[in-house]
Amino acid sequence: MKKKKNELVEAIVEGLQDKKGRDIVVADLTEIPDTICQYFVICTGGSPLQVAALAHSVGDTCREKAATKPIAVSGLGNAVWVAMDFADVIVHIFLPELRSFYDIEHLWADADLQSIPNLD
Q1: Euclidean distance between CA atoms 82 and 73, whole angstroms
Q2: Three-class SS of residue 68?
Q3: Which CATH number fits domain 2-116: 3.30.460.10, 1.20.1070.10, 3.30.1490.20, 3.90.550.10?
Q4: How does pLDDT run across 61-97, given as a tens digit for each residue?
Q5: 73-94: buried (b, 16+ CB within 10 Å) or exposed (e) per residue?
Q6: What is the pTM assigned to this prediction?
Q7: In this structure, are residues 89 and 26 in contact, taking their beta carbons and an 8 Å threshold?
Q8: At what angle do helices 2-18 and 48-65 cross, to 10 degrees?
Q9: Cβ(83)–Cβ(94) under 8 Å?
């Protein structure tokens, strides 16, 4: 089953990179007991328009590459922080100031954090 989840994480990262998502971090929570999911994928967009485009790209790429779609998407209305729930993977797409403020990856400092290089 782990292969399916990694396939989903890879599709999410590809969707984010396709629309120039920045500072992507994958937090692997699989070794941490009692977490709400197995992975967080965190990304920064430069504007509300880009945050929305990143979310749409993730949805499209996951349908195409991993044959799945999010259970829920929250935050598209103002697009300053969009959360996409894929059950075992939760995607957070932030504007820079909100990402700094909430600092989600450091809340999970005991997780295995993988930084994905920016494509540019």
Answers
A1: 7
A2: coil
A3: 3.30.460.10
A4: 999 999 999 999 999 999 999 999 999 999 999 999 9
A5: bebeeebbbbbbebebbbbbbb
A6: 0.93
A7: no
A8: 140
A9: no
